[in-house]
Amino acid sequence: MLLLTFYLIAITAEAMTAALAAGRRDMDWVGVCVIACITALGGGSVRDVLLGHYPLTWVKHPEYLWMTAGAAIFTALTARMMRHLHKLFLALDALGLVTFTVIGCQIAIEMELPVTIILLSGMITGCAGGVLRDILCNDIPLLFRKEMYASVSMVTGGLYMLAIHFELNELASMLVPMGVGLLFRFLALRFNWQMPQFVYRDDWK
Amino acid sequence: MLLLTFYLIAITAEAMTAALAAGRRDMDWVGVCVIACITALGGGSVRDVLLGHYPLTWVKHPEYLWMTAGAAIFTALTARMMRHLHKLFLALDALGLVTFTVIGCQIAIEMELPVTIILLSGMITGCAGGVLRDILCNDIPLLFRKEMYASVSMVTGGLYMLAIHFELNELASMLVPMGVGLLFRFLALRFNWQMPQFVYRDDWK
Amino acid sequence: MLLLTFYLIAITAEAMTAALAAGRRDMDWVGVCVIACITALGGGSVRDVLLGHYPLTWVKHPEYLWMTAGAAIFTALTARMMRHLHKLFLALDALGLVTFTVIGCQIAIEMELPVTIILLSGMITGCAGGVLRDILCNDIPLLFRKEMYASVSMVTGGLYMLAIHFELNELASMLVPMGVGLLFRFLALRFNWQMPQFVYRDDWK
């Protein structure tokens, strides 16, 4: 129940930030809606297609598509106000990341997949939507260049699996990893933590 | 039968316009064939993968691959002539859009999916091939920026579902929505109709 | 057995060259690992998703993910040395191409798919990883512009199917096509063979 609430908040928030990204590229309203749906629901879709987990979430719950498209149009209409909500968006975006991660882990656990794949399923659910958004906006995915996004997802997923392994009660096993993940994300944003870059130049080709 | 004829004309036309797009990017002949196949058959493939509808069309009918690749090479060989056929291509491209849309809706109806997904299945079948083409050519997909493409597909699919709902005879329930969709597309091209753009600038990051 | 050895060498080599490509784009370590895994294992994944062949290789063998990520990090750590191994990488990359191709053909043969799809399955397995790498690095895929990659894959796959058809013994039917493919690739590199380009300009739009 609580996770579903978080999930709905998360896809709405992802849709809104995606709409702003689309606006920075001067897309039209169709593009805004498509980018919003793909960013919000794309991570779960990539996971489900790779794991062969059918039907996809939005096929079973088409109302999520209307919700994300609606949130995107609302954002486009009120963009002037949105300008002042940068910090709120960052917070909701972080909530989305840890929520998606836990949901992704849960699905892989239900499918009785190996530990590596559970962790990866969480990371794909959390991060792939943003990667798709960046590809469609013709950017090098931000994930690969700047953010601690993937690391936050990995830590959240790892703690969640530990919690499941040690049989914490259901609520705690979700909320503790999500809380730690959120804290990690906020610290990373506050102190501008980054993964080390790998810079390489050669004369080949 | 009629729909199959339209479908074959449509994938050939899509392959030919895709080949011209590849030529604008100086691709080699392999690239031309690959781009042509992905543009012509990619929309249906994305739909089938997302809906879990196996086997894919071209796995069941490999001859479609040869047809599209053949059309692409023919286009490359006769490109000088193609230059004068711009309007014909636009017409065939519009025919492809409405044909793909109806086929996509039909498949989702056969799978007994909800109304939203039927509409979306039509739109994905109609539009995703062009989006893949633009990603592979390293462009921001045109769909998101300029064309009324998605709207035409949505209108066609919506009318088709209405026609099915009111139990029109099979031929009319296909041809009327396709005709209206074509008309819409031609008017949009003629009068340069566009969806409103969402232009957004901020100082974040 | 031999094919498995080649496969492991191949995914390691692909991961290493992908890591260097990521380094040229200043990606961080997460990006390096993700690009490496997608390049090494993405071709097989695209094939499996398109053919509906579940579970995917890396879901069944998560150790491959660790291997490729490990190879990528090792490459980033020793990049200065890697600079001198250009020719070794080209050789291993060519080995990967022909190995992936044969594996892709085998899987389609096991699934009893038509001849065209067998050939295509080999080509997708051999080439799609590199295409995904180029899309994620925001390049026009090299496959479509310069290399004889797809042609090498097609020749290897075609010979492999001939060998199967004429019931050569198992080892020969793998090694002969792979050898010819390697030779073709090396000659193409040595003499700078290229497919003819299709260059097209018009005034449309």
UniProtKB/TrEMBL annotation, chains A, B, C:
Membrane topology designation: Multi-pass membrane protein
Compartments (UniProt record): Cell membrane
Q: Which residues form the Glycine transporter domain?
A: 5-79, 91-163
Q: Which UniProt keywords apply?
A: Cell membrane, Membrane, Transmembrane, Transmembrane helix
Membrane-crossing residue ranges in chain numbering: 64-81, 88-109, 115-136, 148-166, 172-191
Similarity comment text for this entry = Belongs to the UPF0126 family.
What is the designated name of this protein?
Trimeric intracellular cation channel family protein
Which organism was this protein described from?
Paenalcaligenes hermetiae
